[in-house]
Amino acid sequence: MKKAFIGGRLRRLREERGLTQSALASALDLSPSYLNQIEKNQRPLTVPVLLRINAVFGVDVQLFSEDDEARLLSELREILSDPQLGESVSGAEIRDLVANMPGIARSLATLHRRLRTESDRAEALVAHLGLRAEDGPAAPPAPFEAVRDFFYAHHNYFDRLDAAAEGLFAEARLTIGETAEGLSGHLERRHGVRVVIAEDGPLRNWDGASRTLTLLRRLSPSQRAFQMATQLALIALDEPIDALARTAAAGRDETHRLARIGLANYVAGALLMPYRPFLAAAERLGYDIERLSECFGVGFEAVCHRLSSLQRPDARGVPFFLVRVDRAGNISKRQSATDFHFSRAGGTCPLWNVYAAFAQPGRVLVQIARMPDGRAYLWVARTVEHGRPGYGAPAKTFAVGLGCDLRHAERLVYAKGLDLTDPAAATPIGAGCKICEREACVQRAFPFVGRPLAVDESRSVHAPYAAS
């Protein structure tokens, strides 16, 4: 553990428990002056003190993790770089705000997300109706954005659902890597559901009246198992799924329905790859995605999804973040178990290996990447193809990226042969040109919105903006 100056969080914990400094110092067997220095960030929070806090109050040590601070810091840096705010905010000021007043920092981030979403929806509605901009009404977040933010806020882990999935695996007497037949039998025996295979039509169709689940023949065994597991989740875990979905929906029916599907899919992944066996296999195999895919009989993308959710408090895996993009740069999935911040300001970085994957389909690419704030990550990327619709029809091709903080890289097989200590080995990337401070980047497409464009006629610094 590095020296962590996070007195603001300790002060907030003390105030939430209604304790004075003297009372907390006594409970932690510290002198009041020493505790006062910790709260004022004059001394770091040490491991022994952290363990005492955990023993006395039973709080999760992740409360004091630097990962959440870095995640919030990155988001606020993007928010406060907006030139429309009219005032420049330094990085030091943002760091102080996050470290000393994290509650206010999180509230600012939440307010900005709501404002951004409502502004986007209002502009779209105004354009559609042909109204003036000032006539556009505020709108709630788009359903898919609301659900995505909900998963992001939960660090892509739902303990109750994950534990329930392990129970369903045992109840159905499934075998790891060969779950399709077992799920079909369990659905029929336990829930009276008949699984039917069709030659054409939708990939999956559920008829509640006849309790028939129809699956398309061209689905692979693992895809059929996933669809059956999703239906089992909607039947057997309807109550906990619905309760979580209503929290995400905030009263909106469409968001509620989408959240139910997302949570059922989460359970399906947890059912096909039960937490403890999957984590044990991942650690044993060095988080080798392709070998895990072979062991559990699922696809590359499914394994990446599961790896990004291994955050059980008493058995944590490597905290990964996952992204799925298409050739045009559209991000259709982004999930984070930790601190990586995905930009919403438009675009991502073309130097990121997730885009290079399209040039080498089917091959696993590895990259050490460094963000402008100095944090370094190990990224693994590969293309995946969805569906085989027949001759002449376009296939759906995506690139899936799975990343983790560089400090976890030694646990991954993908770090073999890499010099993790050499700063020059890292590719400098950013979250998107408009919020990236690397002015000399050869791939820059737009100026950084946080500072004015300074044109130097004697040099070709801004060639990326000109016609070539």
TrEMBL record:
Any one GO cellular component localisation term in the record: cytosol
Keywords: DNA-binding, Transcription, Transcription regulation
GO MF: DNA binding; DNA-binding transcription factor activity
Domain HTH cro/C1-type: 10-64
Pfam families on file: HTH_3, Peptidase_M78, ScfRs
Coiled coil segments of this chain: none
Entry's family note: Belongs to the short-chain fatty acyl-CoA assimilation regulator (ScfR) family.
Record's protein name: HTH cro/C1-type domain-containing protein
